[in-house]
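re: the backbone from monday

yeah here it is again, tokenized this time
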């Protein structure tokens, strides 16, 4: 597999979340040695450039209006992310968005979707999360936009966010796979079923195992597929990753999460990455940031595999 050039993009905001703290995520990942860990993967990574942090409006910490909290501010941050990710993709680099809360994925995935359309590539989005993130202004109990990015990307949301990728929704449900889901609001559940999302929840993982789950989630890709991974840290069990504001017990173990990363690496299709919802204010000696760095290193070839790796497409 040819090596890739990576660009780290910090988006230090918790504008779409209900709690402050994830704005500190980018620097926690830097302190945990993300760039250095990626540079160690010299067989897969040609170069790592840290583009620094984007800027955007501060968190006003106001209440929701018409079902959305901080809509204008979230839109401004997502536009900044969209521009930064699009610029790196245009340079044939792999953008790594370091959040920040998960509303930022509206910007990153919209940029990736536009990139794929312009180049005739198939898009696959793998969404690793404890939550379905498919609330709308009509179903949300809080108005927090970090609970809505999947709905927005599928065209259900305010125009300031749904139009980032150009005409039509950024994502078709068939392009999305969600893994690790275990917390869904009741109204949100109805929308997920109506949209026909491909969801591999924790019961599916319990019944079939992580290997079979990931085989299904990654099936059908070829050399013309761009794989975008959106990794919400609350995908992980809070026993190993406490630094999240929306922790849900019963998530994947360390080894299950590593297997996810290793199987993604084996596809050779990873083209862009979100790392979101890391809240260092809730961490213990930065242990969650170090775990995320370890997982990302596995995305780029680190493995304990003691037999030949699968041949990449």
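seq for it, each position gets an aa:
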């Amino acid at each position: 597999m040819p090596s890739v050039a990576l660009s780290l993009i910090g988006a230090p905001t918790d504008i779409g979340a209900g709690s402050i703290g994830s704005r500190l995520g980018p620097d926690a990942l830097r302190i945990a040695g993300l760039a250095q860990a990626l540079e160690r993967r010299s067989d897969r990574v040609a170069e790592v450039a840290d583009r620094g942090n984007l800027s955007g409006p501060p968190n006003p910490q106001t209440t929701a209006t018409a079902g959305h909290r901080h809509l204008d501010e979230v839109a401004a941050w997502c536009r900044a992310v969209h521009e930064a990710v699009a610029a790196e993709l245009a340079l044939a680099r792999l953008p790594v968005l370091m959040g920040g809360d998960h509303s930022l994925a509206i910007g990153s995935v919209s940029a990736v979707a536009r990139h794929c359309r312009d180049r005739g590539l198939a898009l696959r989005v793998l969404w690793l999360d404890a939550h379905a993130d498919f609330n709308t202004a009509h179903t949300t109990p809080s108005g927090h936009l970090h609970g809505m990015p999947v709905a927005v990307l599928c065209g259900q949301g305010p125009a300031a966010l749904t139009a980032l990728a150009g005409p039509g929704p950024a994502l078709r449900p068939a392009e999305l796979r969600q893994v690790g889901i275990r917390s869904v609001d009741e109204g949100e559940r109805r929308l997920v079923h109506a949209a026909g999302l491909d969801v591999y929840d924790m019961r599916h993982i319990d019944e079939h195992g992580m290997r079979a789950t990931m085989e299904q989630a990654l099936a059908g890709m070829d050399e013309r597929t761009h794989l975008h991974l959106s990794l919400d840290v609350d995908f992980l069990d809070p026993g190993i990753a406490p630094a999240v504001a929306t922790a849900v017990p019963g998530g994947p173990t360390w080894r299950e999460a590593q297997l996810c990363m290793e199987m993604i690496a084996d596809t050779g299709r990873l083209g862009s990455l979100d790392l979101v919802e890391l809240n260092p204010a809730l961490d213990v000696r930065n242990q969650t940031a170090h775990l995320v760095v370890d997982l990302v290193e596995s995305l780029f070839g680190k493995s304990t595999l003691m037999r030949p790796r699968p041949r990449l497409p």
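The chain has eleven helices and eight strands. The chain has a mean pLDDT of 96.
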